[in-house]
Design goal:
The protein is an all-alpha fold and 87 residues long. The chain has three helices and no strands.
């Protein structure tokens, strides 16, 4: 979980509380501000989830990459020589 997901969730909850308080009191201004804050939190949370998914995909790709065998240049020449002599 990254910073954007945490902050987004906090904004979402704070917006819900503010919106609900506005509904209980019948005041439209807190309702609108709360709904806007809630939407902002949802967007930020979704962005954080996308970042986490991208990071996990990169980590998974790096982990599944097969190890490359290093060859010495002398060994490659020796193999070349062996191929020529077999022809």
């Amino acid at each position: 979980m990254n910073k954007d997901r945490v902050e987004g969730k906090v904004k979402d909850i704070a917006g819900r509380v503010e919106r609900q308080a506005g509904e209980w009191t019948g005041d439209a201004k807190p309702q609108v501000k709360g709904a806007a804050k809630q939407a902002e939190g949802k967007v930020q949370n979704a962005f954080g989830k996308a970042e986490d998914a991208a990071k996990n995909a990169v980590d998974k790709a790096k982990a599944s990459k097969p190890p490359q065998r290093e060859t010495d240049s002398d060994e490659a020449v020796e193999v070349e020589g062996d191929r020529r002599s077999r022809r």
